[in-house]
């Protein structure tokens, strides 16, 4: 085909039409060309709307948070350049805030999710780099909890008028089917020792036969094998025996430590009643009890995560777990103290958690609300001393109410002089001020656990060991506080803190 002037050839072009049903009218649509090449590089600043959580995290990491403990850990100049710590902290904070905690999931998000690509400046660190960074700098990442609390305090979000203390069971990264009881450990240890003895006798016979000819030796141990090598089956059983013995030693040490603490506490109270103060006698009583202590046959140890324990959760199910503790301020549900325990009972954590809260904030609360799990003679005595020393008025439930059971009003008249601490606390909670104050406990702390479980996908821990569990729980608590700061102050609050 020739043009109108016949000077050049024109090839026919087929007009592309949009497939599907044609428009009812001759309508002009906005330009849409998925294959259009950008003439200029895209700006990361155009990827997200103003006020997005990812922008808040970026400003927080770049301008407010102190990352010097992480940076100080890089002392070697040689080697391939690592990812910028700011990038990794951005990804971990945003991931733990939005429920994306797995290192593999974060790696996928850096390719698929606009917010993660914005925070990573379009880089894609692999999951091994993310996991190694988290494990290497876990203590510094856990310290972000204290930094988040200080930021919330500067913004006036922490009042310390009334706090609630509670615990929740977090699933460990281990199966409860990988645990073994103390009684079964002893039986299994004897069985493996007998198997090792039989295999050693068999190995000795093989070695004697191998000395006759080189061919027999090569057939038994391989061409490059040595006459002192043990068969693989024997080596495997010896390693298994070592794990069994370590688990047994752990259970025995825990039983001795528990007996020691109980005996020391009992002897200390006895000395106080008699008016004597002999610390050496307290220590001797503890050592004597520890020497006689024997674990219960059903006491268990887990081979995957030896620090975790079988615990009963709120649904009544028994899981391999850690006991996560938190103190929450009433004003805006900011967490003021966070820790992880290997003991399923909450009673051991009353004093330590309130002390940690006071240390983190620099103030003691006016009121502390705790449930019946913390009620013990020791804690009731500590609550009375805390009120005298710090002015903290504790409301501690002395028992659980049945379904639809109502709290009875306090009896009229004076409190009997011979009333025990438990009876006095129960009477205190039945007064109008006591019922009004304690009714706030669930509304303060329970939503926090719910938000961490659902919004942050924090039902199960990813890191193993008590130190790993504690670091990850505090990182979850830090991200909870940062989300509260974002909701309360937004990027304007970050600008004020940075200024």
TrEMBL record:
Pfam families: DDE_Tnp_1_6, DUF772. This is Ctc3. It comes from the Bacteria. InterPro entries: IS1182_transpos, Tnp_DDE_dom, Transposase_InsH_N. NCBIfam families: transpos_IS1182. Residues 252-309 are annotated as: Disordered. It comes from Kitasatospora aureofaciens (Streptomyces aureofaciens). Residues 279-292 have a biased composition (Low complexity). GO terms for biological process: DNA transposition. Residues 420-485 form the Transposase DDE domain. GO terms for molecular function: DNA binding; transposase activity. Residues 255-267 have a biased composition (Basic and acidic residues). Residues 43-136 form the Transposase InsH N-terminal domain.
């Amino acid at each position: 085909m020739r043009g109108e002037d016949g000077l050049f050839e024109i090839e026919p072009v087929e007009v592309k039409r949009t497939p599907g049903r044609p428009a009812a009218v001759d309508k002009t649509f906005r330009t849409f060309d998925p294959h259009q090449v950008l003439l200029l590089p895209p700006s990361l600043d155009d990827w997200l709307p103003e006020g997005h959580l990812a922008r808040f995290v970026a400003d927080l990491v770049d301008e407010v948070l102190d990352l010097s403990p992480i940076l100080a850990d890089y002392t070697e100049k040689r080697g391939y350049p690592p990812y910028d710590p700011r990038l990794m902290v951005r990804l971990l904070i945003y991931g733990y805030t939005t429920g994306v905690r797995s290192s593999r999931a974060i790696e996928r998000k850096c390719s698929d999710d606009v917010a993660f690509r914005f925070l990573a400046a379009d880089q894609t660190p692999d999951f091994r780099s993310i996991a190694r960074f988290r494990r290497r700098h876990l203590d510094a990442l856990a310290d972000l909890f204290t930094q988040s609390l200080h930021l919330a305090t500067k913004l006036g979000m922490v009042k310390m008028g009334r706090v609630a203390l509670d615990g929740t069971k977090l699933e460990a990264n281990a199966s409860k089917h990988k645990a073994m009881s103390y009684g079964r450990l002893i039986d299994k240890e004897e069985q493996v020792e007998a198997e090792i003895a039989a295999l050693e006798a068999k190995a000795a016979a093989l070695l004697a036969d191998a000395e006759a000819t080189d061919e027999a030796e090569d057939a038994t141990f391989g061409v490059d094998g040595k006459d002192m090598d043990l068969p693989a089956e024997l080596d495997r059983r010896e390693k298994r025996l070592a794990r069994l013995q370590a688990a047994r030693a752990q259970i025995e040490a825990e039983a001795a430590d528990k007996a020691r603490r109980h005996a020391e506490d009992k002897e200390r109270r006895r000395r106080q009643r008699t008016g004597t103060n002999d610390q050496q006698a307290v220590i001797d009583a503890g050592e004597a009890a520890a020497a006689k202590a024997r674990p219960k046959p059903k006491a268990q140890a887990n081979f995957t995560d030896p620090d975790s324990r079988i615990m009963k959760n709120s649904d009544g199910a028994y899981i391999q777990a850690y006991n996560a503790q938190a103190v929450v301020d009433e004003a805006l549900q900011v967490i003021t103290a966070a820790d992880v325990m290997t003991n399923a009972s909450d009673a051991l954590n009353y004093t330590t958690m309130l002390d940690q809260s006071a240390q983190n904030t620099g103030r003691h609360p006016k009121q502390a609300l705790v449930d019946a799990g913390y009620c013990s003679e020791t804690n009731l005595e500590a609550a009375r001393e805390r009120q005298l020393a710090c002015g903290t008025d504790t409301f501690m439930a002395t028992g659980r109410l049945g379904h639809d059971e109502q709290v009875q009003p306090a009896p009229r008249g004076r409190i009997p002089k011979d009333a025990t601490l438990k009876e006095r606390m129960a009477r205190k909670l039945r007064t109008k001020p006591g019922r009004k104050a304690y009714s706030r406990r669930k509304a303060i702390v329970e939503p926090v656990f719910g938000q961490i479980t659902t919004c942050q996908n924090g039902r199960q821990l990813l890191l193993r060991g008590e130190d790993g569990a504690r670091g990850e729980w505090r990182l979850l608590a830090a991200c909870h506080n940062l989300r509260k700061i974002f909701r309360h102050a937004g990027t304007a609050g970050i600008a004020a803190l940075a200024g």
